[in-house]
Request: fold
Amino acid sequence: MRPMTKLTAILTGLLFTHLASAQPQRWVSAGGALTEWVVALGGESHLVGIDTTSQHPESIKSLPSIGYQRQLSSEGILSLRPDILIGTEEMGPPPVLEQLRAAGVKVEVFSAGADVSALQDNLKKLGVLLGHESQANQLSAQYATRLESQHDWLAQAQLHQTAPGVLLLVSHSGSRPMVAGIGTVGDWLIKQAGGRNLATHNGYKIFSTEAMAGLNPEVLVFTDRAQDGASSRDALLKENPLLASTQAARNKRLIEVDPTLLVGGLGPRLPDALKTLSKAFYPADGSLNAKVAPAQ
Reply:
């Protein structure tokens, strides 16, 4: 090998070694959707800690927990010796993030926005951080294609049925629910599945049972952070008895969704949830008791 050619090969090797070592190797993730995207991009081996909203896939559940994304502690995170903490604007509190930065942890904040452009930006950024840019671009394109297919299905369904009025409720053991308003993943989920969100406020807001019953939704989509199945539906109606008078309850159009679908922006399981939810919004016989189960 000529000296110049050999030198070029050595420098190229050093450059690739530097780039590889520059990739953060120990990751902590605060936000269910982001964690799922890290796994989808082949970065699961980097994860050394996750928050309590990160529940999928099953293989990550054995990782150490750093607590709830909005109530992080610097001590717990630093004990995992991370190179990087990723999360959305929902993570905090801010003083903890500053402490982590001061300790040398790279803190990367992603968008929790419930729109496709925010997701595309998140995937692009994750792809760069992981060194998997091509794969990130591919996942982004596949996601757009799946949503386009969903829109086509919905257009056909709406030729025969009108969009139902929907409320999406988030509760804990049936307690007073928060209602998903404009700008939330819950609102995006309702609309992309072909429903009309009857809530017109921004963000999540606690409603009285009287207020929810007064809107008289045709469909109630609900999620309970403490339990699921028939117990969560029963708890919701027990704690909020006036809901039993709504069209949704009378016609048995109560649909349970996995709460982790609603955290941290648009996640990889949402297209499957949309398919299930839209078929529940536009049923053949108008009666259902459905659950949008987590896709593994």
The chain has two domains: 25-137, 163-292. Residues 55 and 61 are 6 Å apart (CA to CA). Confidence is low (pLDDT under 50) at residues 14-21, 285-296. Residues 25-137 form a domain with the Rossmann fold fold (CATH 3.40.50.1980).
